[in-house]
Batch of 2 targets.
Target 1
Amino acid sequence: MSHPTASGPAASPFGKAEILKRAKGFCAPFRISEGDHFRLDRLDPTDTLHLDKSDKKAAQAVLAEGVELLAELQDKLYAQDRWALLLIFQAMDAAGKDGTIKHVMSGVNPQGCQVSSFKAPSSVDLDHDYLWRANQCLPERGRIGIFNRSYYEETLVVRVHPELLARQTLPPELVGDDIWKQRFHDIRHYEDYLARNGVVVRKFFLHVSKQEQKRRFLERLENPEKNWKFSAGDIQERAHWEAYMDAYEQTIRHTATTTAPWYVVPADNKWFTRLVVAAAVIDTLDGLGLAYPRVGDRARAALAAAHQQLLAE
Ligand code: ATP
Ligand code: MG
């Protein structure tokens, strides 16, 4: 397989066709559209394809060009007002969700973008089915919606901590050994339903290594300006690392589909994570064949009349 290059003679300025081609090359290796034999331990969080640290600057330039193209695609998405794009981000703490969202979406018009963060559910949330709160945050047509964590926590943190399932006060006869399989089934069908309504779903697992998480936690503890990012609970969750990895593997295995694929993005190098996520968003939007709405004959005549009227003032 030929890998995309971040540098090289034709590096900059990049034409649109070249950026789209590179975007495909950067995201395709990490897309999981069929999860049957998915194994998380076969994937390397330090992977940067053929790029190394010396390519970091060139990769950032590619990202900047990509962000510009993304803004253009989003403008068409908004103008066309047919499709919505839902980007779901899941990760262990300190994997870089917030920074990735910030960088990848840095060029887009805030009017066309909505970010929702899902924390532990409130008592009102717990009085409803688990998709209820997420369903209210879905992006409108023409918009990009970002879920910073999502209903996927229902087969991740809730699976790792059975006491959280108990808090949901479901009728006991509905909580059997099959509950996770049932949740996977429901989520797959929910995402099919969204796809059939014009909501394009793409899911990102930022795959950081346990060792890199430790390094980032230490940095947060040792650097006063980063102290605010650390919470004591993060260390407790780290103690359940293996259980989380199992839960992620099962979740991806059972919910990766062609309509709503997962991208398992290596997350030990932030510059590479951002490149892959931007590439996947660009590739997805490009696949929608977006175009500005064409003005019909009657509307064009009205525009010409308005034009004349203004010139005559
Ligand atoms: P950051 O740490 O960067 O601020 P975060 O996404 O980790 O971002 P936190 O407030 O630290 O935000 O954590 C939110 C917590 O809420 C996570 O531990 C997550 O597992 C938990 N959570 C989210 N959804 C659910 C859910 N449905 N049930 C139980 N816990 C949930
Ligand atoms: Mg956190």
Note: Residues 6-11 have pLDDT under 50 and may be disordered.
Target 2
Amino acid sequence: MTAAVAPPAPGSHRLAAAHIGVAVAAFGVASAMGVLQGLSIADVNFPWRSESLYYLSVTAHGVLMALVFTTFFIMGLGYALAQATLGRITGRGAGWFAFWLAAIGSVAAAATILMGQSTVLYTFYPPLQAHPLFYIGATLLVVGSWIWGGVMIASYRAWRREHPGVPAPLPMHGMLATIILWYLATFGLAVEVVVMLIPWSLGWVATIDPVLARTFFWWFGHPLVYFWLMPAYVVWYNVLPRAAGGRLFSDPLTRMVFILFLLLSTPVGFHHQFADPGISAGWKLLHTFTTYAVLYPSFVTAFTVIASLEVAGRLKGAKGLFDWIGRLPWGDPLFASVALAMLSFTFGGFGGAINAAYAMNSMVHNTAWIMGHFHLVLGTTVALTFMGATYWLLPRLLGRDLRFPGLARAQPYLWFLGMVLFSISYHIAGLRGLPRRVYSAALSGADGARWHGLTEIAAVGGVILFLSALWFVIVVVATWVGGRRLATPATFEFAVPLRPVTAPGVWDRFGLWTAVAIGLVALAYAWPIAHLLMHPRFGSPPFKPF
Ligand code: HAS
Ligand code: CU
């Protein structure tokens, strides 16, 4: 279910391109803040360094990277894939409305952070309180993404009416599962923000229940990470094997993976709350089991994508056991980005399995280890895939040649190098007890000595990451404004499965799987939330330390 669709009418990718543009802008600003944080932790004294600026910057970095860059990129990728595989976007006007809503919301939220009024981190943890506009801005971003999901589903349904009895094109199957998961996940966030945070920040209620708010946040917060990962997997399954010159190993396995994520991503949130009171050990254990279950689709992905790459290498004449690895196009920016992203995920995913075990979690929770973990999985696995995908998308969306291809080729390797230094150091420093979210790791005595060299290596990694981010932004901006116009825009071509599937199967029954997914969320959350509501509750007044 692949093959290139005829080149679209001029301008039909403008909506997708606008989203990618906002994503790259958010990424650029957030990268600059990231490097300052790494330097601050290593106690490098740069001008204007202060505690309040550090926490402001951590909040802005987290919100812009984790919420704005990702969401805009995913929306842009979704539109590009809908146009390329379905040949249409149904409801383009609604799409533009959603774009502006989300952009205005993001700017409003970011402005309150930069004015120092919303230093609450990207997790919104109450009783830290933000300016009401921060929560309202975040809500607009989410509502914008809901409309995007509606446009995507409408486009698919219109296509299906014309193609009865044909399964969704594989890239769209992955995006549809992502969208349904997103609706399920953001329900938790909507309850937290609309029912709890906004009324509290407006002063309509005096206190808030932090555990209840955190529970709704992590209902959203864990599937959020798969909302980032699944579009990356769409690229791994559908674009990477093609770029490598191979075939997709299995179509049905691919569909199964996305449906398993839809089912298992949400009922796992308590693995972020092992240390929270008010949730009993039995419920935490249930969420541990489901967390271990959600490793499975990633194991299948490792198998399927690597098998697809091996096919590519062998099609190019590779012999022996590992010869195929050398035949892969390591000089192609998309391929290199995604391959390095996969390599990072091998270690980052392993770390995730460690986090999910209660006893080991108590060693690493709230330490720098967690920064090491999520910079491997989000900061590399997902972000590097998105950067590579941007190099692949731009000539197709803009009809322009990539500028500075040498820079684009080297940039993923530079990112990987920076991240090795950054992430390994913080993993080790975390095991040695360095807390996360500290303004400075400088401490006299034995504790300080255990961390000091490591935070400095991490800071060097941070500077390298910043340089790599800068190269990426330079390539994108130069291509946008000065890339040579292609006579015919590059076409979207996707990996062809070794054995194409022609009729819908069990993994195409979205209605059924959505119902099962809702059932699993109810099973995992209904009683613990009811229990929290029945407890005598002592609310907290707001805190604004800066
Ligand atoms: Fe995580 C904390 C558990 C995956 C993001 N995670 C976080 C936080 C973030 C985050 C942002 O159980 C911090 C939140 C905060 O601010 O407090 N995580 C897991 C588990 C997985 C996992 C079990 N995390 C992710 C992904 C993320 C992400 C993906 C973002 C995109 N995480 C946790 C837990 C915590 C946590 C606890 C709470 C910690 C605490 O105490 O606060 C799994 O999904 C991982 C599955 C992955 C694998 C790896 C498969 C490997 C593949 C690649 C193969 C390629 C090869 C090489 C071999 C099983 C698919 C290719 C070769 C070539 C030749 C190319
Ligand atoms: Cu999680």
Note: The two ends are 54 Å apart (CA to CA).
